[in-house]
Amino acid sequence: MDGNFNKPERLTKLQVDLLNDFQRDFPLCPRPYEKIAELLGVAEAEVIAHFQQLTEQKYISRLGAVVTPHKAGWSTLAALSVPEGELEEIAEMINACPGVNHNYERSHEFNLWFVITGADQQTVETTLVEIEAATGYDVLNLPLVEAYQLDLGFPIKWH
Amino acid sequence: MALNLHDKALITAIEDGLPLVSQPYEAVGNMIGLSETAVIERLENLIATGVISRFGVVVNHRRVGYRANAMVVWDIPDDYVADAGRSLAELPFVSLSYQRPRRLPDWPYNLFCMIHGREHAAVESLIKDAARSADLENVPRAVLFSGRQFKQRGAKYSSGAVMEQRHA
Asked: HEC profile for chain B?
């Protein structure tokens, strides 16, 4: 990733540091926000307030864990080929299903892609069958076979 | 590695995010009947054993400026897919490198990676660099840029984990 993005007007250096520096190895101590505050030379309350604001403004999806696929439950990447005119309606139907956590339009004949997670493989595959029945389209089911690199975060280094 | 019920309950308890309070691990522990120390130790263990691949700020990549997001898929002979997957993973601009099954005849591609950037043209150029670096220039590939985002949120493993915890 090149990271050469224009800095969005509203972000301060502190906010950029909060977004960039704690994507991995978030402090595991009783007061992690105080620890981050010490590292950045600000007050704990300021760190908490900024994380709150960055979350409300959708810069942060959440503070937490990215779980390795198939280590805690089951997940799959699935796709449908849907006529353009039906795309939004079908995306809504899929979003209403349990365990759907990413759902994107993509530039391909298979134009709707989503991830489903669940407690186990059977739960996820039952949902896929329900999606096929509800939408009338076949689902491409592409569970992970092998991970060569996992989600390591997004560097944000503004120039 | 099989997860025990406390680990599942812990992953479920933080799937919407760590609470924004002074002692968040204590708050999570209160939700699931674990001490603050136990929550911290279990998280350390889940990270050390690779169940949690990353623990920290999960940014919304579109909102922070990565607006051109390409899923690049490759049709690689099975004997070479691991080497190719590792070569792609070494490139700093590649995030995620996964082998997935082919579904012939509809879907011939068995290696998936993500390349994110600010603009399509820059990402197209990175994809060419990736093909050159990983010696995949003659391998069939497709590039799927993301368009509308209908949903993005953290994974939910909850139904099973919560129910098992209740029956514990």
From this structure: CCCCHHHHHHHHHCCCCCCCCCCHHHHHHHHHCCCHHHHHHHHHHHHHCCCEEEEEEEECCCCCCCCEEEEEEECCCHHHHHHHHHHHHCCCCEEEEEECCCECCCECCCEEEEEEECCHHHHHHHHHHHHHHCCCCCCCEEEEEEEEEEEECCCCCHHHHHHHHHCC
Is the ipTM of this structure higher than 0.85?
no
Q: What is the number of domains present in chain A?
A: 2
In CATH, B5-58 is 1.10.10.2890: yes
Q: For the segment B57-100, what is each residue's pLDDT rounded down to a tens digit?
A: 999 888 888 889 999 999 999 999 999 999 999 998 898 899 99
Residue B150 to residue A92, Cβ atoms within 8 A: yes
The Cα of B139 is separated from the nearest Cα of chain A by a number of Å equal to 18
> Which of A19, A38, A64 corresponds to the end of one domain?
A64
What global pTM score does this model have?
0.81
pLDDT digits (tens, 9 = 90+) for A19-32: 999 998 899 999 99
User: What crossing angle do the helices spanning A44-56 and A13-21 adopt, rounded to 10°?
Assistant: 80
Round to whole Å and give the CA distance between A73 and B8.
Answer: 9
Q: Which residues of chain B have pLDDT under 70?
A: 1-2, 152-168
Is position A118 within any domain?
Answer: yes
Under 8 Å CB pairs connecting chains A and B tally to: 290
Residues 96-155 of A with CB under 8 A from B: 98-108, 110-115, 117-120, 123, 140-154
Which of B59, B90, B112 is most worth mutating to test chain A (most A CB atoms within 10 A of its CB)? B59
Q: Is the pLDDT of residue A3 over 50?
A: no
